[in-house]
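Q&A log
Question type: sequence-to-structure
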Amino acid sequence: MLSYWETKHFFDYDLVVVGSGFVGLSTAIHFKKKNPKASVLVLERGIFPTGASTKNAGFACFGSLTEILDDFWQMTQEEVVKLVERRYQGITAIRDKFGDKALAYRHSYGYELLEKEQTSALDQMSDINKLLKPIFKKDVFSHVKKKERFGFSDSIQTIVKNGFEGELDPGKYMNELWGLTQKSGIRILTGVSVVEINKDDGIVIAEDAAGEGVYEFKANQVAICTNAFTQKLWKESEIEPGRGLILLSEPLNFKIPWKGSFHLDKGYVYFRELDGRLLLGGARNMDKGEENSTNFSVNPKIKAHLQQLATNVIFPGKEFNWETEWTGIMAFGNKKSPLIQKVGKKAAAAVRLGGMGVAIGWQVGKELASLLSSD
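Response status: OK
Response body:
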């Protein structure tokens, strides 16, 4: 049962954003900047963003050497270069906007571990550097010849360094976005599950977590920023969810012989040091069928694979324990580029981040806000 005041003040907006992750909040912030007098509401079904924004590994990356080479099987050369550029510009944009200290950003470089069957990628490294030079002005990838200092197993034949990648704290990034939304006068309601959107009339039907009722919000514009959960609200979309598992060890009782953010297996596996612990995640390619899920459960097959990599490849001969684990849900599709488009007379979507929300979320939100503001 609603009061007169609730009915009068809390249900009509210029813009309603569905989803409070990196893209949703970025969209709200950029839209409010373009339209200072607009009323903006963000709806989120969880206490924290549901998908992957605060559940990711904190990699400020744009693609390893083998991942970029693999992309050429599905994309044109121009598309691959533009995708790398978009990701790198996105990382640069949030660093410029919020500052490295606020994001806990460390420019610790990216590294890719190559096993024997992947070393042929080195033959194409100079060609990839030439392709990317207009973006970075210098070579991106270089060959690390003295791999012994990293202490990895002998299965790692060589290591490729990326001089333009780093790592950050996703929680601190989200805190910055929360602060900016509050400062901008944007309202966020959590515990609100959107069940339907009338995309032509700007009507958003939602249920509250308390189970006390179904509510109807009205907006001049609706922004769908639900990424992996998009098909529930936009059934015509070709979005596929992709679950990602992350393991975090207890504090290690030995010195870590490396610094930076690392990738294995065409970017599917990633690890870094975090507060004296090992953070290790990914490997959804080991069981893609099961990982195309919006269920946050842990896949035991993938967990066992990651644990084996940790003890056999990353820290061979070392003993340590795992402290916690979690999963995040990303979104993929038939293309790696984000999907930003109108989906009705009063609605538009920005989804399919391809596991690169940290890199492109801010910029994608800006593009969606421009699309909405143009109407």
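Response note: The chain has ten helices and 18 strands.
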